[in-house]
Amino acid sequence: MTTIDLSYVRSQFPAFSEPSLEGQAFFDNAGGSYACQDVIDNLNRFYRQNKMQPYGAHPASRRGGEEMDHSHAEIAAYLGVNPEEVHLGPSSSQNIYVLAEAFVNRLAVGDEIIVTNQDHEANNGVWRRLAKRGIVIKEWQVNPTTGSLELSGLEALLSPRTKVVAFTHCSNILGEINPVREICEIVHGAGAIAVVDGVSYAGHGFPDVSELGADIYLFSLYKTFGPHLGAMVIRRPIMDFLGNQAHYFNAQFLAKWFVPAGPDHAQVAAASGVTSYFDKVHAHHFPKADISERAANVRNLFKAAEATLLPQLLDFCANDSRVRLLGPTDAKNKAATLSLQTLKASPREVSERLAKKGIIAGASHFYAVRLLEALGVNPETGVLRLSFVHYATPEEIQQLIQALDQSL
């Protein structure tokens, strides 16, 4: 198995050579990753050279439109879908809001939508609000001990009137990776549409959406080394079913259908820097390959890098009596995201102590209020969340463990 070259990878992120961040170990990636150099360069160049309405007659305007189209094509290729199926909006929360509004105009009173209490509120609250408009909302509840979603719970909720099932690929609190393909098969067997929130998964490697079987897949580019945008894949049959949500006279522009606010030209153009980074990583570690193989190789490389470091941190947290580790203690089916209920001091106090020791970590409910309540955790107090991605080093893991031991 190819081992990740951390020196090369970290050279692609300006944050690691930033003097003000020297010695600071970044363990808040679930809140937003560092941006790679290619994204920063793309954004800088666009603002200098192409900051005007795109797709016009002037070469600079035309070039801006071409760069935006390039981002759609490159991101689609890494996700295993068609460019027309990728929609780049202001954020995942905003994208899901538009999506829910599109669905409610195609559903009938009494139709059912299933949500979970494991999800981030973005893939939760907007669907629940549709109850005011006659849609029946059912909740697929987690196991209150483990926080896991059990397939039998979903199967018990499905009915002939189920139209949408909204769930998460990976919990942003537990780090547990759900069996998306299996869930999608169950959902499709009931004749419903699967809406998958991949925000907490995609930073650990872009998935093959076609392989997953998701009808709609969403994630945040700012958590995958890119600009502050939300990416939403909607497979073409679902696009046609929902219809254009933007200005009627833009119906021929499929990329605008689910971005009624209009695209952020510069950030959309900059987004291709993410896939440029993936291409560079692949070229550094692997022989030349087609896009599907590149995507798989990069995904597996990132996964292996995290899997090497995760067990040591998990072991420390699972065996320290000063914390309650939420979710799985086994790294096998877990992303590199851990949440701790701190028992001797508040999560905020611990995060402040960690900051003084060069550890960047978050303390909050992280918009997963319903999950914390189900697990008996006060959302106002929240949890300490530690999250890393492939660019973390063994030395940083040791720095974190030592700082935790001194701060808990």
CATH fold topology of the largest domain? Aspartate Aminotransferase, domain 2
User: Percentage of helical residues?
Assistant: 40-55%
In round numbers, the mean pLDDT is: 97
Tell me the number of helical segments per DSSP (H or I, 4 or more residues long): 16
Distance from N terminus to C terminus (CA atoms, Å) equals 37 Å
Protein name: Aminotransferase class V-fold PLP-dependent enzyme
Domain Aminotransferase class V: 26-236, 307-400
Keywords: Aminotransferase, Pyridoxal phosphate, Transferase
Pfam families: Aminotran_5
Explain what you see.
- With 408 residues, this protein is α/β, with parallel strands linked by helices.
- It has 2 domains: 6-35 and 293-407, Aspartate Aminotransferase, domain 1 (Alpha-Beta Complex); 42-275, Type I PLP-dependent aspartate aminotransferase-like (Major domain) (Aspartate Aminotransferase, domain 2, 3-Layer(aba) Sandwich), CATH 3.40.640.
- Helices cover 41% and strands 14% of the residues.
- Strand 5 (162-168), helix 7 (180-189) and strand 6 form a beta-alpha-beta unit.
- Residues 26-236, 307-400 form the Aminotransferase class V domain.
What is the compact description of this entry?
By secondary structure, the chain is of the alpha/beta class. The protein contains 16 helices and 13 strands. Strands 2-8-7-6-5-3-4 form a 7-stranded mixed β-sheet, with helices on both faces. Strands 9-10-13-12 form a 4-stranded antiparallel β-sheet, with helices on one face.
